[in-house]
Automatic annotation (TrEMBL):
<dbReference type="InterPro" id="IPR001977">
    <property type="entry name" value="Depp_CoAkinase"/>
</dbReference>
<dbReference type="GO" id="GO:0015937">
    <property type="term" value="P:coenzyme A biosynthetic process"/>
</dbReference>
<keyword id="KW-0173">Coenzyme A biosynthesis</keyword>
<dbReference type="GO" id="GO:0005737">
    <property type="term" value="C:cytoplasm"/>
</dbReference>
<keyword id="KW-0963">Cytoplasm</keyword>
<dbReference type="Pfam" id="PF01121">
    <property type="entry name" value="CoaE"/>
</dbReference>
<comment type="function">
    <text>Catalyzes the phosphorylation of the 3'-hydroxyl group of dephosphocoenzyme A to form coenzyme A.</text>
</comment>
<keyword id="KW-0418">Kinase</keyword>
<comment type="pathway">
    <text>Cofactor biosynthesis; coenzyme A biosynthesis; CoA from (R)-pantothenate: step 5/5.</text>
</comment>
<keyword id="KW-0547">Nucleotide-binding</keyword>
<dbReference type="InterPro" id="IPR027417">
    <property type="entry name" value="P-loop_NTPase"/>
</dbReference>
<feature type="binding site">
    <location>
        <begin position="6"/>
        <end position="11"/>
    </location>
    <ligand>
        <name>ATP</name>
    </ligand>
</feature>
<protein>
    <recommendedName>
        <fullName>Dephospho-CoA kinase</fullName>
        <ecNumber>2.7.1.24</ecNumber>
    </recommendedName>
</protein>
<dbReference type="GO" id="GO:0004140">
    <property type="term" value="F:dephospho-CoA kinase activity"/>
</dbReference>
<keyword id="KW-0067">ATP-binding</keyword>
<comment type="similarity">
    <text>Belongs to the CoaE family.</text>
</comment>
<dbReference type="GO" id="GO:0005524">
    <property type="term" value="F:ATP binding"/>
</dbReference>
Length: 202
């Protein structure tokens, strides 16, 4: 599953989990791999300096974000550190879920699926889709960021067209929240229909 910032991925993930899916949350894993004392945090500080640390020694995400969203080379440097660590952590979660139940549906929630060229690794790609102007409104309202900052973050990700180009399932999240469970129900039926019994259902 993928989608742009503020496109409703977390809500859709929660609904898929209610159906029994195991969710591999790459945003959460990306936080875990740079926790205080981690090798990931050490590498980030080595690359960007102690200015990306908070007073308590944890990663100062706004400070790091201000650097990488304004500088494509810095963003690639950060991704080169974080992505391998996250992918290894995701692999472990996936393997543990399958060891417990070989028929389980594992949903990898990957914001940068398109950017990292991984769409072909999965049986089904679900995209949460919303108009970019609505993304900006949500980011401003949710995170208290400026409109300019919200647009910069959207432009730093794959385009809406690029994401839709890899989609097997599209869930439009622009409507009322109460409409989403029905859309996820339909998506779940589609996912089960595409999965290979006893095989790799990702």
């Amino acid at each position: 599953m993928t989608g742009g910032i503020a496109s409703g991925k977390s809500t859709v993930s929660a609904l898929l989990a209610e159906h029994g899916a195991v969710i591999v949350d790459y945003d959460q894993l990306s936080r875990n791999v740079v926790a205080v004392g981690s090798e990931g945090l050490r590498q980030v500080v080595e690359a960007f300096g102690e200015k990306v640390l908070s007073e308590d020694g944890s990663l100062n995400r706004p400070a790091l974000g201000a650097i990488v969203f304004a500088d494509p080379a810095a963003r690639r440097r950060l991704e080169g550190i974080i992505h391998p660590l996250v992918e290894e952590a995701a692999r472990r979660v996936d393997e543990e879920a399958r060891a417990a139940d070989e028929q389980v549906v594992v949903v990898h929630d990957i914001p940068l699926l398109v950017e990292t060229g991984r769409a072909d690794e999965f049986d089904t790609v679900l995209v949460t889709d919303v108009d970019p102007a609505e993304q900006v409104r949500r980011v401003v309202e949710r995170d208290g960021r400026s409109g300019a900052d919200a647009w910069a973050r959207i432009r730093a990700q794959a385009s809406r067209r690029e994401r839709l180009g890899v989609a097997d399932i599209v869930i439009d999240t622009s409507g009322p929240l109460e409409d989403l469970p029905h859309a996820v129900d339909r998506a779940w039926t589609h996912i089960l229909g595409r999965g290979r019994p006893g095989g790799d259902q990702r």
